[in-house]
Structures are given as C-alpha cells and as structure tokens.
Amino acid sequence: MKIKIDDLSGGEVIKLLEEHLADMYATSPPESVHALDVESLKSPDITFFSGWVEDKLQGCLAIKKIDAEHIELKSMRTSNLARKSGVATKLLKHALNAAIELGYKKVSLETGSQEFFRPARTLYEKFGFTYCKPFANYKDDPHSRFMTLELGEVF
User: Fold this and answer.
1) How many domains does the chain have?
2) In a 3-state reduction of DSSP, which class is residue 123?
3) Could you tell me the keywords of this UniProt record (predicted)?
C-alpha cells in the first residue's frame, strides 16, 4: 500500500470521509461526534494521509497538532472493500512514525464508547495506547473514550 500526504481534493477521499461522518452520526449523539469535515481537515495544523493500492483508496488517517510535542489522531477510516486487511494497522504505523520524525512526544485520540468502535479501540490497545482523561478541549462524555500514547521507538 502506498501512503501519501493527501490534499483532500480527490473524490474518493471525500466520499470516504462523508461515509465516516455518516457512521459517526448514526452511532453517536450529535453532541458526541468529534469527527471533522473535509474543510476542517484542510487546516494547516493537520496532516492528512491516504493509503492506496494501485488506484483504489484503502483508507485514511490524519494527525492534528495540539502543541509542539502533542498530536491527536483524527479521521481513521478504512474503506469497506479493505476492511480486515491490515489497512488500519499500516496507516497507524505510518502516522505514528511520521509523528516521531516530526519530533512529537505524545499522541492522543478520542473514539466512541459504543460496540461499533470496539475494533478501533482494540487496534489502539495493541499499539500500546492507554485510556486517559479528556485532553485538549474535550469534556467527559459517556459516548467517548480517550486514549494516549507516549512516543518513543519507531513502529
């Protein structure tokens, strides 16, 4: 899989992000949805990665700068055709290694507490993420789980 920094101009990526937002609103109350729309993902504080096999989009993941040492993972999504094929693992390894190369020391994320999000939580746990209190501007929410990881060695 080729992973690249994406400018969010391609139709496939936009469609995948629209599916992501639709799923978030279908599984969580609106006030508990923290997924970003395409325009928000174009912020200069965000690096957006997309993964491709030939010309087929496999998935995406973004990193958002919180401060000079801390980033947040955003918009992790695997295409329906690529589910359970290791795409999420490859994207996560790539994003974490990119964060290390950029000098970040800590990465955090917010994900849902519902059963729908169990595969994502399991993946993050395998990478060593631990549950934590809300970070940045997040508040306690029964529909959210917060996780964090101190960065060190390359993945």
Assistant:
1) 1
2) helix
3) Acyltransferase, Transferase
